[in-house]
Amino acid sequence: MEVQMFGTKKSKGTRAAERFFKERGVKIHFVDLTQRPMSKGELARFVQKFGLTALLDMEGKAYKDAGLEYLRVTEESLLAKVLAQPELLRLPLVRAGQKLAAGEDSAAWKALLADS
Question: Where is coiled-coil annotated (predicted)?
Fold first, then answer.
């Protein structure tokens, strides 16, 4: 079994997911979003499943620093902002085949493994 994980090395959730999958012997294909941004199509897959607002880390410093709690922006401009600033997302974003999980959610990670 292999999962693809999008995140950053600084993200607490990404580190937790990495530990979770390594403990279970799952191979991880890690994409560091600070080194290589997520493609628009890949992000769209997560947005289609969860919705853009569910993917945003509205409690995070990056969200507040960007002023997004006060700004009204179109979904298209918000997508562009998220692609440029991955720290706006609830990380990690995990994909196992067609199954997806967003944020630090061990129950969803277990479901990804159970379905395989």
Answer: none
- Residue-level pLDDT at 116: 56
Summarised one tens digit per residue, pLDDT across range 60-92 is 888 888 888 787 888 888 888 898 899 999 999
pTM exceeds cut of 0.70: yes
Going by C-alpha positions, the residue among 42, 32, 19 that lies closest to residue 109 is 19
Residue 61 placed within a domain? no
d(CA 10, CA 33): 11
HSE toward the beta carbon, residue 22, CA cutoff 13 A:
8
Beta strands in 67-115, from DSSP E residues, in sequence order: 93-96, 99-102
Q: Please report, for the domain that includes residue 37, its CATH number.
A: 3.40.30.10
In a domain, 79, yes or no: no
d(CA 34, CA 38): 10
Task: Give the range of the structural domain holding residue 21, as residue numbers without chain letter.
Answer: 2-55+90-114
Please check the confidence at residue 48 and state whether its pLDDT lies above 90: yes
